[in-house]
Structure formats: structure tokens, C-alpha cells
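for the writeup, i need someone to sanity check this before i put it in the appendix. the sequnce is what the collaborator sent (i think, or maybe the updated version? ugh). structure was predicted straight from it, no edits. if anything looks off just tell me and ill rerun, i have time this weekend
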Amino acid sequence: MSLITLKNVKKEYGKNQVLFENLSLEIEKGEFVGLVGKSGAGKTTLLNIIGLITDISEGTIIIDSHQNLSMNSKNAMILRRYTIGYLFQNYGLIEDESVLWNLKLALEYKKIKREEKLKLINKYLKQFKLSDMLNKKVYQLSGGEQQRIAIIKLILQGSQIILADEPTSGLDKENELIVMKLLKELNEKGITIIMVTHNMNLCDCFSRVINVENFR
């Protein structure tokens, strides 16, 4: 069975605006999928449907063998907490708190000692060349640094599916390459990544490219 399956999905806003109809899609474990298409085609909406943060009007969603998922179902909440990680354009961090505070939040549900949590955090900060950022407030970091912290947060959470919505948007070329390299390395370790992008130059990074306009 595929890791993610959408069957005959319909998404409509009101009675007259249908975004998707009879959309069927399968994504295998370990894929790095790029979602492309013109503005307004529904890339982010599709990502949010897969991430169980937007409900569908009709159809079936199956993720990691959990069937009949809806946004507010118990299994959806479990998947969002333990399996699915989100990487947003705005980084998804609390800007007025420290890097340490944000990363400790990712370990909130892990049954490990405080000392072990700090050791894990320092391990990844060192690996990502961000060791001196531990006690800085998030707002003091550059966009590229914040996005790397957001990726560390997903690693600490143990996310096996990463949904990335334009994660390189607004970054300079150097930080864009750093972020894509980190995502590629995570994918090579078996993590499934689905990424929305308008940058066609990034398509070589993906194992599969899906044009969302084909689902309209």
C-alpha cells in the first residue's frame, strides 16, 4: 500500500467554486515530490489536504494505513503530532522565544530526560552549523537560519512525512541551496517530502514532479 493515497477527492468552496474533482493520487514512502503549477492552481490547498489541515468535500484520504481521515478525526490528530511535519514560508517558529525554547517544544511528547533533549538539540545545531544560535531569539536570525532551525525542529519531532510550502521563498541563492541540500539529505534517509514550489529550477531535486493544474 502507498504511504499516501487520495481517492476521488473533491474540494469545493461554496456551491459553485470547485477546485478539485475526482482527484486521485498515490505517493510512495521515500519519494521527494514537487508540486508545481500556476498561481491559484491549488498547490497549497492540495498540500494542506494531504497534511490534514484542510478538509475535503468528498473522497477518501489514507495515510500510513490510517483510513477515512478527516481534519478533526482522532487519527488525523495523531498523524499531525507524530508523523507529519510542516515547513512553511514563515518558518513556523515563535519569533519572540529563543531557539532553544522552540526546539524543546518539538521534543515535548518525547519520553526522554531533559539532559538527553539538550544533547539532541546541540547535536543538530552543531551539524547544521548553528551552535552559537542556541540562546538567541528567533527574530535575531536571518531567514536562512530560521528555515534551518525549522528543519531541525522537524527532525527532533521525528516527522516521517514533511510537507513544505515554498520553503525557499524569499531566501537568497546561497540559503536556497543550503535548504534544498538539507531536504535532499533527509529524503535520502527515507523521509517522504512533498514540496510546493514556483521555482522550476528546483525540479531536478525531486524524484517526481506533479503539475497540480492537471487535477483541475
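The chain has one domain: 2-215. The helical segments are 43-50, 74-82, 99-106, 114-127, 143-157, 173-188.
thx in advance!!
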